[in-house]
Amino acid sequence: MRWQCSGKSGSGKRLRIRQLPFSANLPTALPALFLLNFFAKNVASIAHDSLYCETDKTGRQSCAEPSHYVLKLARRDDDLAKQYADEHGMAVKGEPFLDSHYFIYPQTGAELRRRKRSVDQLVDRIGVDDLIIDRPKRRVKRDYLFDQSFVGPRPEERIRRQTTFFERREVPKLPFHDPLYQDQWYLVGRAVGSFDMNVREAWLMGYAGRNVSISILDDGIQRDHPDLVGNYDPLSSTDINDHDSDPTPQNNGDNKHGTRCAGEVAALAGNNVCGVGVAFLSKIGGVRMLDGPVSDSVEAASLNLNQQHIDIYSASWGPEDDGKTFDGPGNLAQEAFYRGIKAGRGGRGNIFVWASGNGGSRQDSCSADGYTTSIYTLSISSATYDNHRPWYLEECPSTIATTYSSANINQPAIVTVDVPNGCTKMHTGTSASAPLAAGIIALALEANPSLTWRDTQHIVLRTANPNPLLNNAGWSINGVGRRISNKFGYGLMDAGALVKLARVWKNVPEQHMCTYEYSLDAPRPRPIQGRFALNFTLEVSGCQQGTPVLYLEHVQVITTIRFGKRGDLKLTLFSPMGTRSVLLPPRPQDFNQNGFHKWPFLTVQMWGEDPRGVWTLLVESISNNPNIGGIFSDWALLLYGTEEPAQPSDQRYSPYAPSAYRRPGIGQALTSQNETTVEEASTVRFGSLQSVGDCHPECVGCSEPRSQTACFSCRHFTLTLRNRAGFKCVEHCEEGFYADGDKCKRCATDCETCSQAELCDKCHDAKLLIDVKHYGHLDHGRCVATCPEGLVADYRLTIQAKCVLRRNSCSAGYFESAQSVCLECDKSCATCHGPGPLQCDECAQGFANHTMGYCRQCCSPDQLTQKDLHCEDCSKSYPEFRTKSHLSMLSLLANFFTIIGLVLLGTVLFYLCRQLICCCFGNGRNGNRSDLEYTPLTTIGDDLDGRKKDQKQNMGFALEDDESESDNDDAESLMEGEKRSPEAEKQQREVPTEEAES
């Protein structure tokens, strides 16, 4: 299959991708091809800032000449590649990568003009798909902070121990006796507050990374270091810079970075050398690729190395953290990522761990780093010894979790190995954080080797612990109740919890991608100038007609903006469930005048949310210069996720309506920001426009007088127009809409009124409303012509006929089947209306439904200690979880008092009839009874009228109060009241007999 696309590199050369080569074992499903095609069209055209280019005094820019070229053949043919290279005065070096890509180098001393002519001729040869001019990029290691290694290694730290390759070793008893083990404060609970990353718990469970291979993509590793040699893996190693198999770095004092990172992961335990690696029984290798010119092909070859053997790739480098660079992977590196997650590890996908960046002191953001904003990487941040943000930390919503690292020279840093044959206690930066994360993930892969790349991201964010870091500002709670931070992601990695969850984890469902492109009204593109705030809304249905996404994972915003000072721009994304992600904060050092083109901003902070509803992108400028301007061109929303919950025990959203959990305040936040702009400036700018006078009363600033559709923001409610390209401001939501915060959203077509999009309160025409608020029924709030199986029509409430559960005539602990047979409830149910734990009305003794929505067994004390995820904590009270099962006792009491009331009513009617007869035939035995007392009868009648009135009101409230959980119980109470028990009827028949005898 051939795909045609083109992009433009930072050097201005057109890049041709005539064919995307796939290995034979790659999936050929259409969604996979569509995804790669989408990236080729939208992401591959990103303009990079990191090419080695310099500008002279005259303004002319010159870029470094390429050190090599990449020859791409239609299919792999090593002999043909060498033949073509020889015929054109070049040489092939190293192994091919991405199946049919070859490094070719010009002969030494070849003239530049002759070299270019050879390149032009070679690209036209038969079997050649492309010849890529691969210019070097700026790439930096992320540990530049400070370095205070030991002056000389201790004698015991230089001991070499000959170890059988990959020998199986027993886990030593803790504590280890390695000389620097007690200095590894982040492993032994010596961070402030006695915190650590709970690695010892995983070790004591027997996990140390056996049979897991990790490769450090860096400046090489010292493979014969005494603390690494026993775990060294040649199959996870190579030298891309010199095109051989030996990853040993140059011994020039600068190339120790990769060796240090390797020691964090896999330093041997119990050998009396240095400290201990997190996964001290794992296989460790290294790729020497930073010790020379780094280009797209160098990165791709590193990422593509032996993807069937290597499990985890750890990278502690990236674009310059200077606060003014936007850069990411090129076309070849993107293809290597894609091949890794699609075909690596036998189709389970390689794990790519990335350091988030060290540009915090320059107010840089990792959102400008295309490696950390890739959905295929786990972006790892850092925390200090005292559980604070380090001064170098970069903020972005793509960060998934955090590990410990260094802060300043007065605080302990990371302990690891050093070159040559030594140790260091001063490894620093986010460079130190990524390898620690890779080691922890290796423990999880040993516990469950079937984990996929997406499974790994799920369990990392679910088990991350925010508690040690909550003393830092910036934490918030997302739409599914998880704490999130642009500094620390979901919190500090917890190895013990990660391994426990990995052991029971089931592979997640197939990944879907749903894309929405915003249609911009005229003028297109929209002019922007000075200080402004624009918000753009998209109504999202979750692609229910294509590849549905009901449970979010990654969310990307791909946008093109050109502005006079790129660093003044700020982008914020709001999800329908109320989560706010700052995609791009202002970067004062970034004076770039070009902006960004099709840049993929990523957030993982909406993970697990229901995407259906209104998404809002807020684009702001903090510029104080009214003369700075530009254009806003476009934006698209990419939603990645699944149609089914990630795990069977996860909360399930209704397939017919968005999640019932919506947090107000998104629109209020937008309105507040716009109102601040109104108060601070005499005119309100909306792009290149300014507010006119005589705005509509519902407007806060406007572009046209007395128009509800030309408002900058709204005072009360915002109603999105049908074309989704604008909105109007209203005081109250119109009929057919419902209020959600300060937004008016459209009801489903069957709803006359509603409280959510497809949660009707009243139906059109004569349709019935399904009224079953229960976990096992997902159709609650739908309007139907006839009741579905298991429900019966209830026409007694004349305001709106309903479909309700069939009344259970069986005794407690049983339910009535379709054949009118009483069957026993599930053991977890005290009462139920059907089989299984999902259909309990009330949980049995020893069971509860506090968290999952159905009855689960209470946890034992041991399970509570181990934080078991498969039981309920019954030691706490949960008043907020009030469901029908909690109201069953109230229903029984209501039935009892209803029967008593009916008996009293019958008695009163008898007395009234008797007195009426006495009045009409008063000349009988009683004579004239002028002193007959009617007062008690009047009082009883008034009480009855009041009781009837209360019953009618309650019947009405059962329709109107959407928050009440006892609607069906009220209806059942009335039904029980109408059908009297035999004892009540017998009592009523006996009353007049006794009176007659008296």
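The record above closes out task 2.4. Task 2.5 opens with a second protein, given below.
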Amino acid sequence: MTAEQGYVSALFERLDALRDHAEGTLAQAVKPAQVRTHQGQLERDAAVRHYSERAARLSAAEHGLVFGRLDSDDQEPFYIGRIGLYDEEYDPLLIDWRAPAATRFYRATPMDRLGVRRRRHIHLKGRRVARLDDDVLALDDLDDAERRHLAGEGALLASLNSARTGRMADIVATIQAEQDTVIRSDADGVLVVDGGPGTGKTVVALHRAAYLLYTHRERLSGSGVLVVGPNATFVRYIDQVLPGLGETDVVLASIGELYPGLSTVRADPADAAIVKGSLRMATVLEHAVATRQRAPIGGMTIVTDRDEYVLDDQTCRRIRDSARERAARNRQPHNRMRRYVVRDVLDELMRQALQKLDAVLEGVDVPEMDEDEVDQDLASLVDHDALRQELLSSSAVQEAFDILWPELEPELLLADILTDPHLRADVAPQLSAAERDALQRSDGVAGDHWTASDVPLLDEIASLVGPLDAALEQAAGQHARAESARAQATEQQRQIVADAYDVAMDMAIDEEVAMPVDASVVLARYHDVDASAPLAERALRHRDWAYGHVIVDEAQELSPMAWRMLARKCPTLSMTVVGDIAQTGSADGASSWARALGDVVGGKWRQARLTVNYRSTQPIMAVAGDVLAASGADEEAPRAVREDGAPPWSIRVVEEDLHDVLAETVHRERTALGAGTLAVILPLPRLDGCVAALRTREPGVRTADDQDVLDAPVAVLTPEQAKGLEFDATVVVAPDEIVAASRRGFADLYVAVTRPTGRLGILHTAPLPAWWSRGDIRSRATAAAAGAMGCP
């Protein structure tokens, strides 16, 4: 222990020195200065961004800096930690857990040692070595001194038995072999990580994000990684993992947060969600846009202050069809084609105006001039630009543009579809009358009234229509200013490239990597006028931001339309898809991975399966297995790594005593737990009544609507809200009502009973079903409730 403490202290001294250097350099870079050239701005932006990220990574490594040591057959022992550290001579002091050299720490087993003799887990409390755990893979090879210094009970079991804090923690010190294989899998293509409750799917996916950002930093640091979770509570639950691993180029969001300016947690009724999530909606939305590209039957008449013009139906069709053909040929959205419609209409109006002028001129008798001279002289009197501008500024002409090819906004178009039954009948003939009626909204569809199922539809429309002209003009202005700045710096370009190379070399040395950063990457990254903003902020602000990799958690819940949206956000289709089909609860969720992904990637995806439950004990998983079997699912519940644990219990209570018994039961469970977290999981109709009853006994009760629900001593959630979370103890209320509440009620109950790490209780008013009698659920009553309850 003393020897390890000495080495650990030296590592922290090196960390302090590197952090002081990064923070000092950053302080110099952000000082007010006269930056007169593009070159100077480039250098300053590069330095600020680089040293900010460097300081953040070093600070994040403070907690649990080193957690492992590997003794092998063929080399000196080396230490593994959150980041890589090198001394001033560039000799390694600490190996980053993501480096190839660290792979053996996670994958070596007694059956396949990979040359490893001993794997030591180092547990820190602050900067002090608190405990050592040794995994000896070659006991016969250890000498007497090494045998005397073996220590520990096993890092994994110690971690599993610790109390939960309400936030997900990283597992860099205890990654298991099957998890490590997933984490280090190639980034190309779509990887499906399938596994039952508690197998570590989420935390493995987050560590995979950290691994990919480390391994492919040059490619991913500019585009980032998007992590999509099932709801806002889940996103808060995981939001500390990646920053704790020193990674900030990550966007965490739920589906309801993936449309700029919108954040919604509202859900549609099941029948509406199914229709909105169907791929048929893509055709419906395409038809809706097409109906706004008009060629009025009989044409149209335009009356300006000066004259009257006629666009016959043939001309209207020609203008419309020309714009459509151009859009299809160039793959351009609706709004970008409006300029061509405007041009073609103005050309036609100009032709008619000049034709009328010619007719007037033909009636003018000018005997002193021959005909050619008259045409030439009078034509020169017409200011074509002024006439065109006069037509363009006419309100009647503008109205004609809007009739033929209006600018479209996704929110307004979707609102029309959801509130106008006649429009739906026109654009959605492939939907049944009942399906079209399911889409009807009577409470408005703006602001807080948008639902999570609306977000993929809004994004789909946005991809079809593109930005408005005003947005295009703003973007064009920004581009022009950037081009002007680049033009002013033309004479300095050679020096800029040279300086960028120096910056790149400094970055490489400071990062202590083996290969220098390409100077062109530095130039490309810092030419962005918005580059100083955090990546997450920039990405969420731009709907068409293309991410380098996307991780989808609880992916079985996504609708086909949501998958289309995510495919647009990651054109390379580099994705990690994490989930469990047996837990699908949403009405528009997946029944198989092939069906979920087929329309997005076809058959081009691969699958890895996690098989071991690290969350719940075997007694809890036996109860969960009964639920899974009753659901008719083909899957089996994953095997628990912890065989022993408190037996699950149940209390049957008459309806009028439910609230009192629940309050007492939760109080008892909180007392038994001491430290730790507890959740009450129940059907939505019982939420308000149970919360009110619990708050009479437990003032710290919170629901998913509360921002601090994850930090509360008692969280009251529905199965949908609890998805992906874990607690030390869980009380499930009215399991029969959970099953009956939806067409996938068994999946919701499966989610509910697999949330706890150690204690599971069931409170029910109806008898437990016969299929649950096989599980070891002990019926019991509290002393206070025994007299009130009419049954055991």
